[in-house]
DNA sequence: AACCAAACTTGCAGTTTCTGCAAAAAGATT
DNA sequence: AATCTTTTTGCAGAAACTGCAAGTTTGGTT
């Protein structure tokens, strides 16, 4: 259970993230300084760098920081992936406002998109591990790696589309749709 | 045809990239300064930033800078993708030593991997456009976007594996292998 | 309650990164 | 050669980032 420390840390972290996003949304990323962000979050400039290596990291955050490690059920792969990643979608959907703001800032400042993609990379590694565990393949076998990378790519497309649509449909539906299109990638019809 | 200017620009760019990679390989990314890199490339420190926004960008470069826009033939999608991306693979394979060095530096400094992934993002957009063109779908339709993202993910896995294997097999084979595993992602066997 | 140890914050000094601007150098054009 | 464009460079300064050595808060122990 989280003690006072953990709670306060999360508060500070969230305050920094929201301050960074709010300011970047108003003026653009490169017209905001770490000083202003820390001031808005009411911590010292030095503390900012105790939480984030760079300004950009504060904007992107660690989107899935406290998300449970994915566990795959013995289902067809796509179904198992959809099930294993559901908690992540719920968390994103739960932080709806924060995420819509974040995605708006990323859209307006495309140099951030890489970082968002990057943030998913660590999650991708954990997913590859989970797939390897469930299938009994070696973790460095190409199949789990490709499967994880593909799932990651599909989720990214879904999140971007979800945010662009302004949450008019729940995220999970966009993910389902993206996964559906996965099945068409390897059909043998001519393009 | 490229004049002296274009030639010199490419030379300078390549000199900066190789200097950055060589130094980062020797000492680690964060023990190299942009000053040292520009000195090694025999340009002024200021010039470095005319070419790259950050030190990290110099290390990752723009891997596919002068690669022709992909064009899809009317084949089954995976075959068309493999065909359309072949020039990119050849270019990478042609710059074998540079790429192996780059991937070694990236392995040793994982914070760079995101940037590599990111660099592929612009190529991914062009690919999505090409798929949309060929299929007659809207560029913002999820199918071309998912297809491009998936192809991108598969290529990334292939390049990483190719580099880790030290080019014991040609890159194109790793890509074929990764594409082959794509077909298994949506099969309906239980995991 | 008194105390201690660990975790977190802060200030400060110093290095490195990065930008804007204007002058100089090099290349292209006629 | 004269001129125009592109690239390089130096300089000044802002902002980003790091290491260190305090202080402060928190959690647990006696």
From TrEMBL, chains A, B:
Q: Give the superkingdom in one word.
A: Bacteria
Identify one Pfam family in the record: TetR_N
Task: Please name the InterPro entries in this protein's record.
Answer: DNA-bd_HTH_TetR-type_CS (IPR023772), Homeodomain-like_sf (IPR009057), HTH-type_TetR-like_transc_reg (IPR050109), HTH_TetR (IPR001647), MftR_C (IPR041347)
PROSITE patterns named in the record: HTH_TETR_1, HTH_TETR_2
Keywords, ordered alphabetically:
DNA-binding, Transcription, Transcription regulation
DNA-binding region positions on the chain: 33-52
Q: Name one GO molecular function term.
A: transcription cis-regulatory region binding
| Statement: the UniProt record of this protein carries the keyword Transferase | no
Question: Does the entry feature the keyword Chloroplast, yes or no?
Answer: no
Stretches assigned to the HTH tetR-type domain: 10-70
Name of the protein described by the UniProt record = TetR family transcriptional regulator
């Amino acid at each position: 259970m989280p003690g006072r420390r953990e709670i306060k840390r999360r508060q500070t972290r969230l305050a920094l993230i929201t301050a960074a996003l709010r300011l970047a949304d108003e003026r653009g990323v490169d017209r905001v300084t770490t000083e202003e962000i820390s001031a808005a979050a009411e911590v010292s400039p030095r503390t900012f760098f105790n939480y984030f290596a760079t300004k950009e990291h504060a904007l992107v955050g660690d989107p899935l920081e406290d998300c449970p490690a994915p566990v795959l059920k013995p289902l067809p792969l796509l179904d198992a992936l959809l099930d294993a990643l559901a908690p992540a979608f719920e968390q994103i959907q739960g932080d709806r406002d924060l995420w819509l703001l974040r995605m708006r800032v990323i859209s307006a400042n495309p140099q951030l998109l890489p970082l968002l993609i990057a943030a998913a990379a660590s999650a991708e590694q954990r997913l590859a591990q989970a797939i390897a565990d469930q299938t009994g393949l070696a973790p460095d076998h190409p199949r789990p790696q490709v499967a994880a990378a593909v799932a990651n790519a599909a989720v990214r497309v879904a999140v971007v589309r979800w945010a662009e649509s302004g949450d008019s449909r729940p995220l999970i539906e966009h993910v389902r749709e993206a996964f559906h299109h996965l099945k068409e990638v390897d059909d043998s019809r001519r393009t």
